Amino acid sequence: TMPSIFSYLSAEVDWCEGNFERSKIIAEYYNTVNGTILFSFLLLTPLSFLVLEVLSLLLAGIFSTYFHMTLSYVGQLLDELSILWTLAVAYSFWYPKIYFPKCIKSRKQFFWLSGITTVISTLMSFIKPAVNAYVLNCIAFHVLYLTWRELKKCNDKRVHRMAAVMVMWWVLAISSWISDRWLCWFWQAINFPYFHSFWHVLIAMSLLYCCPLVMYFDVTYEMPAFKPKIGYWPSDSWPVVVPYIVLEEPHKQC
């Protein structure tokens, strides 16, 4: 008989960490614990960040925790689809108009395009869920390409610094993810199969820089009268900081 889609270990994917080694109810202990990093870091994101996007990222963190706790088929789909929906929300609201396809004339039309694409992608995700994670990771290359295009037009060194730090964390994150998938035999041989849990922490750090960067470019396009500036809390000199956006109000003409 086919296992229940809610049953433990019914997922198509099993990460490198051993199952039920530290708990009888948590399949992958460290991956589950570090999955909470995905949404606990959102407490540090700017309050002006769109509420819908914050909720989407919170769900992604919650579903990631559930998936690694159970390794169930439903948990796997919820984990992957929550990331897809989060990306869809981000693209819908913040994708720059200058990069719209020529057939798209307004943000409303782009909403429809994003929605239809997301629905189709969601349905296709059920065909081979094990492939979904690779496809979702490939979207990052498009984000990096857009960032490169925007940096070519920007002379602010602080923006370039934030982008560089974002890319650094992303490279470390994707390296950990790939290492866990492709070199699991080696990490198990030396009893250190925890690189997917590193992925959770590192991708959260990358998002911590990515979100303000997206907001910076969005303000530049949507509110040209304001001049956005990058700030760092608690100090620029700290090795790990929380970036934020400061808006300089336009000077009123007499």
Profile the largest sheet: 2 strands, antiparallel
Per DSSP, what share of the residues sits in E-state strands of 2 or more residues?
5-15%
Structural class: mainly alpha
Q: What oligomeric state do these chains adopt?
A: single chain
**Unreliable parts:** none
Based on CA inertia axes, which overall geometry fits?
globular
Compute the number of helices: 9
From the N-terminal CA to the C-terminal CA, the straight-line distance is 79 Å
Q: How many domains would you count in the coordinates?
A: 1
Order of helices and strands: HHHHHHHHHEE
Proportion in helices: 55-70%
For the secondary structure, the number of strands is 2
**Radius of gyration over C-alpha positions, nearest whole angstrom:** 20 Å
Strand order of the largest sheet: 1-2
Instruction: Output mean pLDDT.
Output: 87
Defining traits:
254 residues; two-stranded antiparallel sheet; mainly alpha; 9 helices
Written overview of the protein:
With 254 residues, this protein is mostly helical. The chain has one domain (29-248). It has 9 helices and 2 strands, in the order αααααααααββ. Helix 4 runs antiparallel to helix 5 (107-125) and helix 4 (73-94) packs parallel to helix 6 (129-151). It is globular. The mean pLDDT is 87.
